[in-house]
Structure to design on (287 residues):
């Protein structure tokens, strides 16, 4: 349940839990920034190229612009991409811009940003093929979305990003269940909530250890229509691997997740009785 892969381009995987519902938090525009030291003015390196001597990129049409570095909404992305921006400015001598006013929602948005798409966070229309790209570098990118990567390579071959390899460290991703809840379930009935098979609703009822989805204020959640649940390729993959046609809505040959209240996608085992559901919360547009 905790896959790993060396480097900044890392594998992300998530198991489909039998009784879990999926929802996305609305994240603040600058989510993750508070985890880092504040950015200060002045140069970082003692022999930095002075700001007045830094160059801009020039395309064949004569248009000039800075090197664009794209950040995602978590602390590791802020750290890695601010570091890259500093090196590009102070060592290579180029002006840099970062997307601090429109932080990326997740790795797939990062793919689309360096493809030149104007609205990489918009899962229904990324705004591709609108001209040159203004973002050129994106580090700390998790290589866990091969279908999206391959789609970009085939659909936008002249603009598609290149994988430049490993940054030299290993990352882990996993589900989080608070330790006291794990201990309560194990002490009460020997149920190991850190093991995915314990969530099989045919044998167990882990929902008793979690709050009801009705206890969460929906105004703080992202609607399904704005999340990856409205992404046609993602939902087609869901049906392909699970045969859960009842979990999607098909309109004009486009697949989207079935969210009866607009916010929660219910797993098959609790779709008929949502009181048996407990929430699985994620961020961005659906990591």
């Amino acid at each position: 349940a905790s896959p790993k892969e060396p480097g900044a381009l890392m594998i992300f995987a998530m198991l489909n839990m039998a009784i879990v519902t999926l929802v996305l938090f609305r994240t603040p525009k600058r989510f993750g920034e508070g985890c880092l030291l504040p950015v200060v003015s002045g140069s970082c390196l003692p022999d930095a190229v002075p700001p007045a001597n830094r160059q801009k990129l020039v395309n064949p049409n004569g248009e000039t612009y800075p090197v664009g570095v794209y950040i995602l909404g978590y602390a590791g992305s802020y750290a890695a991409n601010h570091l890259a921006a500093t090196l590009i400015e102070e060592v290579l001598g180029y002006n840099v811009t970062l997307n601090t006013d429109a932080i990326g929602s997740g790795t797939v948005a990062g793919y689309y940003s360096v493809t030149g798409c104007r609205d990489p966070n918009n899962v229904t229309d990324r705004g591709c093929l609108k001209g040159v790209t203004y973002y050129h570098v994106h580090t700390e990118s998790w290589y866990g979305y091969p279908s999206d990567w391959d789609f970009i390579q085939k659909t936008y071959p002249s603009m598609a990003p290149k994988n430049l390899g490993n940054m030299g460290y290993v990352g882990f991703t996993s589900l989080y269940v608070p330790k006291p809840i794990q201990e309560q379930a194990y002490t009460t009935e020997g149920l190991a909530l850190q093991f995915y098979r314990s969530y099989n609703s045919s044998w167990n009822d882990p929902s008793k250890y979690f709050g009801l989805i009705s206890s969460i204020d929906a105004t703080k959640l992202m609607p399904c229509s704005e999340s990856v649940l409205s992404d046609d390729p993602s939902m087609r993959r869901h049906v392909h691997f699970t045969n859960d046609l009842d979990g999607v809505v098909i309109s004009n040959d486009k697949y989207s997740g079935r969210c009866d209240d607009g916010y929660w996608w219910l797993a098959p085992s609790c779709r008929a009785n949502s009181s048996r559901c407990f929430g699985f919360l994620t961020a961005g547009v659906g990591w």
